[in-house]
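Action item from last week, closing it out:
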Amino acid sequence: MSRFRTPGHLASWAGLCPGHHESAGKRKSGKTRHGNRWLGGALGTAAMAASRTKNTPYLGARYHRLVPRLGKKKAIVAVEHSILTAVWQMLTHDVDYHDLGGDYFTQLDPDRAMRRIIRQANALGFTVRCDPIPAA
């Protein structure tokens, strides 16, 4: 991994970084470039498997969080990028994989998760009142 200074360099070599083509202030195609086909196939399979897990680990939660905003295919590429970044970190720093868990994003910003749940309940026609549980 010493050939790639950062995880971004590895992702770029693998073809998992989105392109950036802009001319005269207009954004054109941002397709990912062609990278190593064997690595891309393996990462695609791993990303699909991660997105379909029942008890969602971090990668599955990341996929399900990105799908509404990006769509399924772009979310798969984002998960592939996350896998490749994790592999670079493991090989560079000689550490084992540590899954952050499916509730990582909820723990990261609990207020955002609460707002999302309230918005969903309001869309279903419910009025929600939130009272914190008193500490025992």
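Closing note: Strands lie at 22-23, 26-27.
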